[in-house]
Specification:
Elements lengths: L1 H22 L7 H12 L11 H20 L3 H5 L1 H23 L6 H11 L4 H10 L6 H24 L5 H27 L3 H8 L7 H19 L4 H15 L5 H25 L3 H6 L1 H22 L11 H11 L4 H12 L5 H30 L2 H15 L5 H10 L1
Helix pairs in contact: 1-2, 1-13, 2-13, 2-18, 3-7, 3-12, 3-13, 5-6, 5-8, 5-15, 6-8, 6-17, 7-8, 8-16, 9-12, 11-12, 15-16, 15-18, 16-18, 17-18
Keywords: Antiport, Ion transport, Membrane, Transmembrane, Transmembrane helix, Transport
Pfam family, one: Na_H_Exchanger
Main location: membrane
């Protein structure tokens, strides 16, 4: 009965959050932030309305899997092969180097596993969280939006691979071998539907034919692929986000042009309940007392994200597509959006706390910092966009020029004669 009570509270919050986000003036607070904050208030550390039982945790894992499934589905391979993708890759590598350097100088870390976990957390971008925000603001098809998607792709793919390689308790060669096997199976699963579609397979036609009936075959096939790769990741002792992300990528390869009806159904299934549940329970897992005891640490997390992620992304935009047409506004907007992070932070803190290399206090502060980045970074990006449009420096220069030109010009010789008479 406790599980259904918790689910009832989760369902109420999932309804209230978007309504509150809509009525707040200028919609400055994203729905995701409200889900996390309301989950934190309803969680076991404050009001105790939500109990994080094993059943709730299983649904949370499923919500996390769907979030990364949709993130993997949004990847445009052709965009990653060009200058935009190369710039984003260089930006992420620089980010990870800065983040790891920062992790090395942080005092009281419990070893290299926690240092790697901190570096991964500071190098992440919440692509799945950003996509709805970019769509709402009409940026998704612009150069700025495409750059954010490219940086977001590597900001999720890079940390996912780093988690598998650096947070594993196995030896390095065993980890590499297991990853190679996982990717080999994933490649085979990606090739099969492409070959079947090219051969005009009757099975593929039947799947699409039954997709609009009660069978909902395309949705069921997508879920089957996701669960299969998540299970494979679990068998190989990898994180579920790697399997879910690979599943989304495979589904996109099978439908390179996309299928609007499938996307709508997946959005309804994922954003209707499972993804909100993930964010709510992520908030419920935050130890509010630990965060309030160390507000300075929370501020450091936000500034750490800016230093490690925003700065390299800003400079990497000088090497992207149409870089010569970019303004400082565009570069700053891409950098701030790319600093938005939360799901990877939740995932990496989960792995680190499960292995006992990170305490719940540090994990709570990191998750709270990630939630704060979801609030601040899109807001700052919006403000910087408008402020840059106003050209404040140019306006100040113009006012100064007008002031100087309006001052009366004294006749130097007349002034000298006045001085002599005195």
């Amino acid at each position: 009965m406790t599980e259904f009570s918790s689910l009832f509270v989760v369902s109420v919050i999932s309804v209230l959050a978007p309504l509150l986000a809509y009525v707040i003036p200028k919609r400055i607070i994203p729905e995701t932030v409200l889900l996390v904050v309301m989950g934190m208030l309803a969680g076991p550390y404050v009001l105790g309305f939500i109990e994080l039982s094993d059943s709730i945790k299983l649904l949370t894992e499923l919500g996390l899997a769907f979030l990364f499934l949709l993130a993997g589905y949004e990847i445009e391979v052709k965009e990653l092969k060009g200058k935009r993708g190369k710039a984003a890759l260089i930006g992420w590598l620089a980010t990870f180097a800065i983040a790891f350097t920062m992790a090395l100088i942080i005092p009281n870390t419990s070893g290299y596993i926690e240092q790697f976990a901190l570096a991964i957390a500071f190098s992440a971008t919440a692509l799945g969280t950003l996509i709805p925000i970019l769509k709402e603001r009409g940026l998704i098809k612009t150069n700025v939006g495409l750059d954010v998607l490219a940086h977001g792709t590597f900001g999720e793919l890079g940390p996912i691979l780093a988690m598998a390689l650096l947070l594993s308790v196995r030896s390095p060669w065993e980890t590499v071998l297991i990853l190679a096997l996982f990717f080999a199976v994933s490649i085979v699963m990606a090739i099969i539907p492409v070959k079947a579609r090219a051969a005009g397979s009757k099975l593929v036609e039947l799947i699409h034919l039954k997709s609009e009936t009660t069978a909902q075959t395309t949705v069921r096939v997508t879920v089957m692929v996701m669960v299969s790769l998540v299970l494979l990741a679990y068998v190989f002792d990898l994180d579920v986000v790697l399997g879910a992300f690979a599943a989304g990528f495979i589904i996109r390869i099978a439908n390179p042009a996309g299928r609007e009806e499938l996307e709508q159904k997946l959005d309804g299934l994922a954003f209707g309940f499972l993804i909100p549940l993930f964010f709510i329970t992520s908030g419920a897992s935050i130890n509010v007392g630990a965060v309030l005891e160390a507000p300075f640490a929370l501020i450091l997390v936000v500034f750490g994200l800016l230093a490690a992620r925003a700065v390299p992304v800003y400079f990497s935009t000088y090497f992207t597509e149409d870089a010569e047409s970019y303004t400082s506004r565009d570069r700053l907007t891409v950098a701030l959006y790319s600093t938005t992070s939360l799901p990877i932070i939740v995932a990496v803190t989960h792995v680190a706390t499960e292995t006992g290399t990170m305490g719940p206090r540090v994990a709570s502060i990191l998750i709270a910092g990630g939630a704060l980045s979801v609030l601040l970074m899109p807001l700052l990006a919006s403000i910087s966009y408008k402020a840059a449009d106003a050209h404040p420096i140019d306006r100040m220069s113009e006012r100064l020029r007008r002031f100087r030109s309006s001052r009366p010009v004294q006749n130097t010789n007349a002034a000298k004669r006045k001085i002599r008479k005195r």
